[in-house]
Amino acid sequence: MNEIVQQLYDRVTSLPLVCPHTHVDPRMFADPDFRFDNPAELLLIPDHYLFRMLYSQGISLERLGIPRVDGGEVERDPRKVWQLFADNFHLFRGTPSAWWLQQQLRSVFGIEEKLASESAQDIYDRIAACLAAPEFQPRRLYERFNIEVLCTTDSATDPLEQHQAICASGWKGRILPTFRPDGVVDLSASDWRRNIEALGRITGIDIGGYRAFVAAIEDRRAFFKQMGAVATDQATLTAHTEELSEAEAETLFQRALRGVATPADAARFTGHMLMEMARMSIEDGLVMQLHVGVYRNHNPLIFERFGVDKGADIPIRCEFTEDLRPLLSECGNDSRLTLIVFTLDESTYARELAPLAGHYPALKLGAPWWFHDSPNGMRRYREQVTETAGLYNTAGFNDDARVFTSIPARHDLARRVDAEWLAGLVERGIVDRGEAAEMIEDTAYRLAKRAYRL
């Protein structure tokens, strides 16, 4: 079996990387002279996978240099932050975070030593020296990593100035925006009114009611598509969808404008807007991504001090069969729609999502997401999904990266896990070697290109 694993892995090691969903900052590609500040700013501070583990062991985010929303005092010396990280790197043993970081050190920076207290400052110096070199500027790394396309995630009100600068520069790298409407769709968001005002300013539409709001959303989607976007992305607590009449939607919208919308109002309006987003995707061709099943900002102390995306997001139980039925009844049979669903509730894979994706032409299953973006999580996904949905109702690998230099490591891990999984199918006589060879090229490259129309 090891021979089969190696043969399959060897088939895909040189394939280009397709990155249809990341949280990488497009600023690093817009400026041809952009350089990463230091190892801590590059590898630790943007990565909630890392600092949430350290926080769980009693290390304050202030000591790790994570900026506070009130501008309060935090550690400013990146060397001290890096040393603290290295002193506690043993906490990551057995986690994919440890594998990703060590893989980055080896393959990106040529560092074979393990990160530990004793090696911390030497490794820091060697990474810093690399970051000062021209070949470690993001555009050069993009080419070195063999990235074919990379999609960022951008709010509905983002003017996309960085993307415009990339296009105007003449650089050949393909960096595409992705339309993220959460800030203007979620009536319960604390900054919803400010976001609506920003949406009105950037579109030139006076958003005094629901119909104007929808027109503004359509206007922004058209601009994103003009800038090369191929997809939208929406994160919701549940998969609830609901068709409201225009009068009902208007009532909820007006309540939100007056600041009196309830959580139930927000849930209904979000469910309705998922229906609207599906309709818009049928019309404009943008792939619709839906990330479901995370209770965001679960820790109020961390949210108040540091804001969103600081490692305090916790999975919840999900339901899809009933919740998605209104949307799928309306749009699921239309092959012009591609709806890619991600979840943190693995219990729904075999019970609900695989059967749904195995029936509705519009529905595809996204890759194992977030906490399940790991060797065990990827294996569980393949084992629970493939028998019912088949491989070709899944959307390929998705690195969902915040740290740019982690992208090759994440793709490499997925390719290794898939080689092992497919070799097992060959050993059991479920597929032959030729089929497995085609399947691993699909999982590593072709499925994502096809699903996202890249």
Write a brief structural summary:
By secondary structure, the chain is an alpha/beta fold. The chain folds into two domains: 2-34 and 137-451, Metal-dependent hydrolases (TIM Barrel), CATH 3.20.20.140; 36-136, uronate isomerase, domain 2, chain A (Orthogonal Bundle). It contains 20 helices and eleven strands.
Question: Topology, please?
Answer:
Elements: H1 2-12, E1 17-19, H2 27-30, H3 39-44, H4 48-56, H5 78-87, H6 96-107, H7 120-131, H8 138-144, E2 147-151, E3 154-155, H9 161-169, E4 175-176, E5 179-180, H10 182-185, H11 192-203, H12 210-226, E6 231-236, H13 246-257, H14 263-284, E7 287-292, E8 294-295, H15 300-306, E9 314-315, H16 325-331, E10 339-343, H17 348-357, E11 363-365, H18 375-389, H19 407-427, H20 433-451
Parallel strand pairs: 1-2, 2-4, 3-5, 6-7, 7-10, 10-11
Antiparallel strand pairs: 8-9
Descriptive account of the structure:
It contains 20 helices and 11 strands. The protein starts with a helix and ends with a helix. It is globular, with a radius of gyration of 22 Å. The protein has a 4-stranded parallel beta sheet, covered by helices on one side. Strands 1-2-4 form a 3-stranded parallel beta sheet. A two-stranded parallel sheet has the order 3-5. It is an alpha/beta fold. The longest helix has 22 residues, at 263-284. Strand 10 (339-343), helix 17 and strand 11 (363-365) form a beta-alpha-beta unit. The model has no long low-confidence stretch (mean pLDDT 96). It has helices at 2-12, 27-30, 39-44, 48-56, 78-87, 96-107, 120-131, 138-144, 161-169, 182-185, 192-203, 210-226, 246-257, 263-284, 300-306, 325-331, 348-357, 375-389, 407-427, 433-451, and strands at residues 17-19, 147-151, 154-155, 175-176, 179-180, 231-236, 287-292, 294-295, 314-315, 339-343, 363-365. The chain has 2 domains: 2-34 and 137-451, TIM Barrel, CATH 3.20.20; 36-136, uronate isomerase, domain 2, chain A, CATH 1.10.2020.
